[in-house]
From TrEMBL:
Residues 120-287 form the YprB ribonuclease H-like domain. This is YprB ribonuclease H-like domain-containing protein. It comes from Paenibacillus albiflavus. It comes from the Bacteria. Residues 1-27 are annotated as: Disordered. SUPFAM superfamilies: Ribonuclease H-like. One of its GO terms (molecular function) is nucleic acid binding. InterPro entries: RNaseH-like_sf, RNaseH_sf, YprB_RNase_H-like_dom. Residues 15-27 have a biased composition (Polar residues). The lineage of its organism: Bacteria, Bacillati, Bacillota, Bacilli, Bacillales.
Length: 458
């Protein structure tokens, strides 16, 4: 197809031939009009290739600026936080003391090379919930430590055409870090970003970051004590972070689409603030886990259930000595401390039994026996509901103490409890598997007791 310039030149030549030589004004007028149209069309094409929309004042209000690179342009908002600032109960600079402990997440040997400046904190705001091709991260929030500040950068695209430039900037930045800190980023944020790299034909070979996804340890610690393990819940109940006039992250997609329709940047001011707070909260949360791994967390502020969950998590992180300290502290509190009263609510739950199971696995049988006996004593005035401690004690007295009579007595109590339970249900007419097992145990114990009695008589 002929270009615009060629068509205009042909039009100019044809116009020249159709006008008489004695009339110079029409020729001049056509020439001027053709050149004007040609130049304006050429300028239009040039402007279309290089045109960058001017920033509305509303972007400047929140400190967003235009950032350009070889792939185009996007909006970049940068904010620095002093290391003396608090996010909830933790000062941002505290991570400098505990950062080396976080190497336990990957069991790396080069812990001396790992510092707070090795980590890149990341959180995205997207147009949807999946990680498929139709979900676009319109805002990527990142955070990192500099020598004297914690810096939050927010990369934002005003339209899909700016995505390539934003991803190119991020691709260059991540190469400066070795670890990525997120909250559910292992399964959502980072796979989504990698997909966007692929769709925009950017290399993914250099993105071998080690991931510290704080959602999983948060669940390990708080799934039994918090209503939910969402970051918004954790930050309030465990980090002391309070937000005012916060825009929920669930509204971010709708607000972005409203911005695309109306073009008003003030619609997104709350989304920028929400994402910024998410990044700073990630820093506060990683400080919490650093203190937990270093053993400097104040146990007096931690509920017993959470202490127990923390001990299990620490053992999983190969911090066995520290885990044992937590378990021993709980044991002391249950039997001799503030929770030793048999009427305390902790004895109405199963925490003492779970702790006893831990000590049994560690072959610290005396501590487990003490917990089983105390749990039974708390049920002496009411109807027993669990047979586990009776069976555990029966096993202990049979195989370790060789006290068959005591083991038989405990087994008999457990058997009667099962029969009462069956009577109350009225639906079960035959012995359950547990009842059959207890019958066999009691028969074996009677035989052993008789043999021991006969041996003593001889």
């Amino acid at each position: 197809m002929s270009s615009v310039r060629e068509r205009l030149l042909r039009h100019k030549q044809a116009s020249t031939k159709s006008v008489t030589s004695s009339s110079d004004e029409p020729i001049s007028r056509v020439n001027v009009q053709a050149e004007t149209l040609l130049n304006s069309t050429q300028d239009e094409r040039t402007d279309t290739a290089t045109y960058v929309p001017a920033l509305e004042p509303a972007w400047s209000i929140i400190g967003a600026e235009l950032s350009s690179n070889t792939m185009g342009s996007f909006l970049l908002r940068r904010k620095s936080f002093s290391l003396s600032e608090f996010q909830g109960i933790y000062r941002l600079g505290e991570l400098m003391t505990h950062a080396s402990e976080l190497i336990a997440f990957h069991d790396d040997k080069d812990s001396d090379q790992f510092t707070e400046r090795s980590m890149l904190f990341l959180d995205t705001e997207t147009t949807g919930l999946g990680i498929g091709a139709g979900n676009v991260p319109f805002m990527i929030g990142i955070g990192y430590y500099e020598q004297d500040a914690f810096v939050v950068e927010q990369l934002f695209i005003r339209n899909p055409a700016e995505e390539l430039a934003m991803l190119h900037y991020l691709q260059t930045l991540v190469q400066q870090f070795t670890h990525l800190v997120t909250y559910n980023g292992r399964t959502f944020d980072w796979p989504l970003i990698v997909n966007r790299f692929i769709l925009n034909r950017l290399s993914t070979d250099s993105h071998e970051l080690k991931h510290i996804d704080l959602l999983h340890p948060s669940r390990s610690l708080w799934k039994n004590t918090l209503p939910t393990c969402k970051l918004s819940q954790v930050e309030v109940d465990r980090l002391g972070v309070l937000r005012y006039d916060d825009v929920p992250g669930s509204l971010a997609p709708a607000l972005y689409f409203q911005y695309l329709a109306e073009g008003n940047p003030t619609i997104l001011h709350g989304v920028f603030k929400h994402n910024e707070q998410d990044i700073v909260t990630l820093a506060s949360l990683v400080i919490h886990f650093g203190k937990l791994l270093s053993g400097t967390l104040d146990l007096s502020l931690v509920p017993l259930e959470e202490q127990f969950r923390s001990a299990l998590w620490l053992a999983k992180m190969n911090k066995h000595d520290l885990a044992d300290e937590y378990l021993d502290h709980i044991w002391q509190e249950l039997l001799y401390g503030a929770f030793s009263d048999e009427g305390h609510s902790v004895w109405r739950g199963d925490l003492p039994l779970r702790l006893a199971s831990c000590y049994k696995q560690k072959h610290e049988h005396q501590r487990a026996v003490a917990l089983w006996h105390r749990w039974i004593d708390t049920r002496s005035s009411g109807l027993p509901t669990m047979i586990q401690p009776y069976i555990e004690l029966a096993i202990y007295y049979e195989h370790r103490e060789r006290n068959y009579d005591k083991a038989l007595s405990l087994s008999n109590i457990a058997y009667n409890m099962l029969r009462k339970r069956r009577t109350l249900r009225r639906s079960q007419t035959v012995d359950s598997v547990e009842e059959l097992d207890l019958k066999k145990r009691m028969e074996r114990l009677r035989t052993k007791s008789q043999k021991l009695g006969n041996a003593r008589k001889q």
